[in-house]
Amino acid sequence: MASELYNTIDALSREKGIDPQIVVSAVEDAIVMATRKYYKSQENLRAKLDKETGKINAFAVKAVVETPEQVEDPNLQITLEDARKVDPNLEVGGELQIPKVTEGILGRIAAQLAKQVIFQKVREAERDTVYNEYIGRVGEIVNATVKRVEGPDVIFDIGKAEARMPRKEQSRLESFAISERVRVVIARVERAAKGPGVVVSRAAPDLVQHLFQTEVPEIYDGTVVIRAIAREAGERTKIAVMSKDKDVDAVGACVGMKGMRVQSIIRELRGEKIDIIEYHEDAVTFAEKALQPAKVSRVTVVDSADKHLEVVVDDSQLSLAIGKKGQNVRLAAKLLGWKIDIKSEEEKRQEVELQMAAMAPPATTPLESVTGLGEGLVEKLSAAGVTTVEALADMTPEQLEAIEGIGPKTVEKISLAVNNYFASLEAGVVEGEVAAEGVIAEGEAVPEDAAPEAAADVAAGEVAAEGEQAAAPEATVQAEAASDENDEHGPEDGPAPETTE
Q: Most buried pick, 66, 239, 396, 416, via CB within 10 A?
């Protein structure tokens, strides 16, 4: 018949769900520690619980050696001759157990120490039991009861153990009352130094999957398959489903009659929005579905190896496609497993224009195209490496004056000629023909707002008489260029040369 002490140990073991032998070993270890503390001994001590009497006996254990020379530590070893004085049946290699008196001498301090050791051993055994029980159940949905709230964490009773739900595993829409029953996901199991080692979650996508399996028979029996879930707890969830039966609409089955099935899940999640999307193997088609409710204009695969998509939407749909704080596109990218770049039609158009401009060859207009630059000036510019109007327009006055034979006045004339050339392009003038707001009639005076080239061609008098030849503009510019040269050389160089036609 078992003793009262052993019956107590057995009851404690059943309550904590641990092996009774673990508690017995804890009690024996506690007695050993208390005995060593009392005797202040370095001997090898052991304790043994008598199951029937409930008495715990302590022993000093010594190894039996043959000769005195082999005794290295008298506390741990004894010769065969001395050992047989206590037990004649001992042999070399055996152990001699020397009883230690414990009853009535351990005292209150030793008893308290023994109690602490027992509780510590029991807690360690309990944690190991919990770990072994739940480590294989990660991802499983369990019913839990709210036990208490510790700061941001909620402590649940999940049956054989307590579980902790930290803030990051909670939905922002949810709050819990003591004794409330909820469904939670076992997220992970930790070997914590203290407190619960099981961490549960209400933010995991597994919870949404379990709720759909519960509410939708087609998912439970495998007719409809959940291919992917992307969730931001308390905000929105996107779930991609596909049907193995062509006669079953996957999305319709999940929504249910008048939305009853999905509404039941939304109530369980305290109002979290849920988008149910039909899964497609084609990433382009899947992306169009995943970005709902936005309407997508087109989807382009940028890099299939890196899983990179470019999505173009109408300008009015851009904010809807991106979503609040980027949530819609972020969930879509998580659902697809692809990187998604969203652009509006206007952004894409500007991007294409920039690419085309970069690919187009640079404009090269010869200097001869500019009315007002004489042959001599063109030759000077060409000799200096300036052969196009565009290159000439980019030069500063200082750079022009650095060219031999060009002074400040010539720089002004060059600037005027170049400005007139570009103004003529803007006004639509081609090779000296005036095509502005109206056409200049033959023999009429040139309007003030006509193109500068036209004014130059018809200058010096009113209108050149028929048969007479107006002074060549080149001659005028050459004369001015010569005047610049005189300005540069000074009056001692002599008078400016005359220019004849």
A: 239
